[in-house]
Amino acid sequence: MQILNYVKKMKGGHKSPSKVNLLEILWAWIGSFIGIAVIAYINQKIMVTTDQIMLIGSFGASAVLIYGAIKSPLAQPRNFVGGHIISAVIGVTVYKLFPGTSWLAAALAVATAIAAMHATKTLHPPGGATALIAVIGSPKIHAMGYLYTIIPVGVSIIIMLILALLINNISKTRKYPMSWW
Question: How far apart are CA 141 and CA 96, in angstroms?
């Protein structure tokens, strides 16, 4: 009986999300396009002359939240900024502690980042990827050490947040953020 109840949980039971109107889709597209374009442009045109980067994969997932799911608690500034910063620090720390054991470092970084985000009320799912990138990233990312938490993570998320505030509030039907803290 317990096994049957366990398996029944996997069935779900909620309806699929309601349809999003075309205007909402358009604003999400505009915001995510501009947010990623600005960071990618800086990455390609300015950072190319340095050893720094501005663009990491987890920012794509953040764009989904801060431009496409602006009412989600996971998209609010506290979660967006705190989740990335906390996860970046954890990812770099774990990589430094376990540099030759990527399977262990990857698992520890993501799991610890999730626990820390929960504990600090800053849960932002792309933060798990930010921690993971610190561990499995290129030698260029590894060479950055804790600078990774400032550039690309800190500077890029501030740029994306400013753009999210500006773009998401142009439309009369959208309001971002729902809360700061």
Answer: 12
| pLDDT value of position 51 | 64
DSSP 8-state code for residue 125 = T
pTM (two decimals): 0.91
Answer yes or no: are the C-beta atoms of 53 and 141 closer than 8 Å: yes
Closest CA to 62 of 47, 77, 44, 45: 77
C-alpha separations of 18 from 14, 15, 23 in Å: 11, 8, 15
Q: Determine if residue 166 is left, alpha or beta; phi over 0 gives left, psi from -120 to 50 gives alpha, anything else beta.
A: alpha
The Cα–Cα gap between 109 and 128 comes to 8
Alpha carbon distance 49, 44 (integer Å) = 9
The per-residue pLDDT for 94 is 98
Task: Give which of 53, 52, 126 is closest to 87, Cα–Cα.
Answer: 126
* pLDDT < 70 stretches in the chain: 51
